Each structure stands twice: as C-alpha cells, then as structure tokens.
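Notes from hallway chat w/ T.B., transcribed later so I don't forget. T.B. wanted the structure written out for a chain they're using in a teaching module, and asked if we could keep both sequence and structure tokens in one place. Agreed to drop them here.
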Amino acid sequence: MMDMSAGERELREYRPAPALCDGLGLPAHLVWPRYEGRSVGNLAATVGRALGVPLDGVLPPLADELLDGMLDGVKRVILLVMDAMGWMALRRVMATDAGLVFHRLAEQGRLMPLTTTFLSTTNSVLSSIWTGCPPAQHGLLGYELYLREWMMAVEAIGFSSPFAPFSNTLLAWGFDPEAFLPVPSLAQRLAPFGVPTYSVIQKGLTSTPLSRMHFRGAKEVRGHSYGSDFWLTLRRTLSAQGNGRRLIAGYWSAVDTLAHKFGPEDESGEVEIRSIAMLMEDVFLRRLTPEEREGTLLLMTADHGQIHTPARQVVAAEAHPALLDMLWMPPVGEGRVPFFYVRDGAHDDAWAYLHEAFGGEFTFLSRAQLLESGLLGPGEVYREVPYRLGDIIGIATGNGAFTRTKEGVERLPGRHGGLSPEEMLVPLLAVRLDKA
C-alpha cells in the first residue's frame, strides 16, 4: 500500500505553473485538479485500459504507478461513486476504527488520494467520470447554469427552473438529455468493443435527465431503494452476467445528503460511512463466489468532499441590492463558486464591489482568466462553456458561500464546489477481488 500521507501532501502542494497560480491570486492551501493522471477524470480511460478497450479523445488513464500490476487479467470492473465521501472524511472515520473493511482492502490493494475535477460538484464531476472528459469539454460546469440555448438559468440535475427544482421543466418543453452533452458516455465508448455497462443507482434517479446523460448506451440501469439493497443489487448484477467483460457502475448519495443537512463533521456522516463499510463486507464481499471474484477489479471513489459553511460566512445576494443592480440576474453556478453575469457598462463597478465586500472570503477571476487557468481541464473548450461561466467567477478561499436569499443562509451547513482540500481530495480504493 502506498504512503498515503506522502500522496496527500503531493496533491496539496502541486501547482502546474507557479507564475500562473500567483497571477490568479489563489491561496496556497487550495488544491489544483490533476487532470494529467491523478484525478477521478482519469478513471474512464483506466477502465478502458483494464478491459482492453482503447479510448480516444478522453483524459489519460491514472498514472501507471498508482495501479501498477492491478489491471492485468481484468474481466470485470466495478466502479462505485460514494457521493461526498471525501478523502479527509474517510480517513477520519478509518482512524477511529481499525476493524473497518477498508483497512483490509487497502492492505490487499491500494487506498490513495486523488483530486476531483473543478467545479467540485456532483453533476459536473460525474459527467467527467462517466465520459472521461474534463468540464471544459463536456460543459456541465455546476449545479445552476445559464443555458443560452434555452434562454434561462436551470438547476442542472433535473434541468428545471432554480425556483422549482426537479420539476421537469425542460423535459416538458422537449429537452433531450441524451443529446445535451457534446461528448459520448463511457458506456457508448465501451459498447462497440463488446463491453456492456450495467448501472446500479437509486430508483428515484434512474430516469433523471442527469442519469440519462451519463448512462447513454448502458445495457441496463437497475434501481435500488436502500443501502442494503444497493449492495445486494450490485452483487446480483455481478452474478447474473457470466464471465464476459463488462463494467458495473454504482452510485450512492447518502453521505452527501447528510453532510448538506447536518454538516460534514456531524456524527451522521461517520455513521453512514461505517454503514457503507459493514454492508459492503457482509452483503457484498463475503457472499461472492470464487468465479465472481475472478478477474474482478473494484474501484471505489467519491465525486467530492464537503466543507463546513457556517451561516455567518454565507452571503445572501438579496442583502446587497447595489450588487444585484449591476447584474442582469442573481449569481448562479455554485454557492462556493458563484458566477456573476454583469450588465453592460457595470463590469468595473461590479469587480470593485465584489473585491471590497467579499475579497476576504473569495478570489475573483474573469471568464478569460478561468478559461486560461486550466482549472476546467485541458483540450478544446466546448463552445457553450464561456456562456455558462458568467463574466466574473468567485472562488471561495475559506468557508464562505453565496446564496440568493436570506432564507438560504442557514439551509446548507455543508457545501462543496470549491478548491479546498476538504472538497477536492477524494479517495480511490482499488482492489482485485480475486486477491481479497
């Protein structure tokens, strides 16, 4: 098992170009996404490599030394995303319980930190995981986005009005989720090579626009209801498909839900992570047959972590009418990374206001600065990305966040989207089940 402390330190200290980073004014403690081979965006190509499928036009696979020797003879890959089970949260729970199955699996395989992508938010990161492309190329940048093609801002999971989230607004108007992302899904890339994809996600998510985007081309999307049902459905999916090559994708959201509601350091998150470990061991791992284990690679990661955002550090935009008068709509994006769309002629005043009022909690970048920074990843930028970013982008440097209304200040004690270590560092647990 690799030296986890050294791996974490290297990710925290990395800067692609010190002069560039210094020019942006981003504090040294923020974590830069590692698209070149140490991020969750590199998992798609890693899956392809393990299954003998060459993937073109995607981010490269994980650096060779991270999974050295683990990809040989792989027939099946199980790729699990535990929403918001960040590196720091997992390590905190593991430090208090030496009996968790994660310790054994780490000894038999690898447990290491990776970075997530930026913005560190579910719909964007999952889009990178399930397409292999960075946000700059897939264009799904944050939870709330202005879509010029629809002439409106939307919450970009259910693709509905931000004032009526998950109400299927755009679906009712003819929105086609399967045509929204400009890049193929991982399932679509694997299928021509005879490698089917099976997805295991919550029943309520199987038909959402986001799931329909991510699992285009999947052989089957199976819904589950509870934590026990997740692991049981995962095992049955593995058991039912024989010995052929395949990808089984799984997603579990409870850590994120609890951290949003109670805060990421609340006991509820620790209990949920323990529950994941216990059910994984009892319902899934212990009941696998030797045939099911043979050639099976398990990869478990997270899309992001979470950071505590005290109400006193959350800004309600409606409390700043002078700022809103400089904008042509309230901020969108993420609370931790707000996008400001500025009225013609008001850019200098808005820039000055943001720096004077919130410069202690946020670094502000122009659209051009963010696009040139590489934070959204390499490659040709999708044509809609500049329009979805706004004119000024804020990046939280501490525990602050933006929200539209005063009622929203206390709604989410835990948030994500930014570049803090709590948000950006995620685990990768990799283990060959025929050796576990």
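Follow-up for T.B.: The chain has 19 helices and 17 strands. Might be a good example for the class.
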